[in-house]
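Exercise 7.
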Amino acid sequence: MGQLVYHEWARLLALSSAAYMLWASFWAFLFRKFFWDMIGGTLGPAGIIPGSNTAPLVFITTTIPLLQIFSLLLSIVALALEWPLPMLRRTAIHRSLTLRVVLYFLTAFVGIMVYQTVDCAIYFAITSGVYVRAMMRGETMAERGGQAWSDA
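Solution. The predicted structure, written as tokens, is:
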């Protein structure tokens, strides 16, 4: 029986999370909704009316789709990193697990704000945790013959 290679599992999680977030970001442009609008909100005839304490976040989600743009760009970067572009292959950026942990945690933080990308944000947080586990086990990504293998 073999051992679980955590960075390979995290890579698959990140690929599926990034594809899901890319698709959800497109939907977020069409249906703009801030996820945490129920905090301090009131129930009106058309649904939840956000409270005044979430006004800045509602503004950058509904009026200016800034969070949707960030989630779209971060998901594209995650796809380019996990399914490496030819210019990224065999570079230190592609092999850095620490960069992935920070990037995916940031992606999860941005994604948790938009209603459509909440699920992907949770998956990115799990992916970040799996990459941390891979670093704790001492796994590294070495490029050999076009395939990423574990040294652990």
